[in-house]
Amino acid sequence: MAERDPRNRTGRGPLLRGLAAAVLAAGMLLAAAGPGQATDTANPAPGHGTGATIPAPGAQFTPLTAAVMTEPTPFVATDGRTHLSYELLTTSSLPSSTPLRLDRVDVLDARTHRVVGSLSGRALAEAANPVGDPLPGADAYTPPPPAPTPTVIQGSQQWVIYLDLVLGRGQPVPRVLEHRLSGAVLAPSGPTPFTETVQRTPTSDIPPLNLNPPVRPGTWYSSESCCGNTHHRRGLAPINGRFYVPQRFAIDWYRVGARGQTWEGDPTRLTSYLSYREPVVASAAGTVVEVQDGIADNPPPVTPPVPPIQNTVGNHVTVRVAPGRYLLYAHLKPGSLRVREGDRVGPGQVLGLIGNSGNSTTPHLHFQVMTTAEFFPTDSPPFTFRHFRVLGQVEPRIWDDNLGLQPTGVLPITRSPYEGYHRARYPLDREVLRF
Q1: What is the pLDDT of residue 379?
Q2: How confident is the model at residue 228 (pLDDT cuts 50, 70, 90)?
Q3: Pure H helices in 256-375
Q4: Secondary-structure percent of the chain, ordered helix, strand, coil, rounded to 5
Q5: Exposure pattern of 221-247 as b/e (b: 16+ CB <10 Å)?
Q6: Residue 370 neighbours by CB distance under 10 Å
Q7: What CA–CA distance (Å, rounded) separates 174 from 183?
Q8: pLDDT of 187-212, one tens digit each?
Q9: Cβ(191)–Cβ(167) under 8 Å?
Q10: pLDDT tens across 367-381, in order?
Q11: How far apart, in whole angstroms, are the C-alpha atoms of residue 164 and residue 144?
Q12: 51: alpha, beta or left, given left = phi > 0 and alpha = psi -120 to 50?
């Protein structure tokens, strides 16, 4: 008997090579099938285990696979419109030598097959990046470089696409979404168009928590909230062998003075910041499930070294307010925490004081809803506040990492199209509001 090729010890080499060739030809198969016919039965949203994958009408090889990283949850923001913000983790199934061009991502209502949102051209390029690439534009003094267009995904490469859908007023939220990816396989013989429909996923029917403010009445700056290019929204974290976006809807809160100032005096002193030592209060009744204290405040405004993973959010309090829903109050002042694990707290009860502990450069409160008691790993669902008034907005992107490096501590506040009183709304990024 002839000796088996040592490169094919399992006897599966020809099969795998045949599959690679078939995937390479997938563009032609999909183009022949037409839009909406080729469907990928990807896994359901990780962490949910709902078994909500919807059977495909047929089997096709697809140049891209995709997985939705959370169950998309609709919420209403201060623009009065319903948003769906989530991520599509895509992987090229092509050989590393064969790139593909992604031209368009359409999100459709799976029942009516009507498009409810699209990304293409510059918008797609700015909403997608290879896994592991640093977030562009993290330095407010250096504008992000233009995203390369067209969007080219190398063979075997994994990309994340950040989807932020805004539905029209009165437009119903689809019960199930599907995603149509269009582009071309850039084979040596020439580009071969493809269209594939992937990752049908249900939207959540669990309404966002409607909360009281986590701070005392006054004027506050909502930094790093959804839905732009912020380190909360774009914070892809590899934890325990899986990707998460644990801060998707987190907000950093800064106290603002009568002149629009966030600090005055010497920005290298903690006490110059109006947020420092401001009370942090419970946004809802619940049970304290985690307390961490004893981590020193960082001296502003120099970015501190990245702390150990267990100290990322610094001194903090976590409160369980509903099944699978926890409120995180983070970066608190050491020694200021006033609750212990097991305590029951009521709305408005003081939990501690704002500090600058953990991965924080200038004093602020990091606040968010989590699906677990631990920050790593967790998912980050949206929430709303019962009532507040929008006073204005800050156009340039000012991050907490460089707030103290600005020439002055005065925010460049301008008029907002959403000024006025709001009920049960989520504050958008860089809004200045009054609780």
Answers
A1: 94
A2: confident
A3: none
A4: 10, 40, 55
A5: bbbbbbbebbebbbbbbeeeeebbbbb
A6: 23
A7: 25
A8: 999 999 999 998 899 999 999 999 99
A9: no
A10: 999 999 999 889 999
A11: 19
A12: left
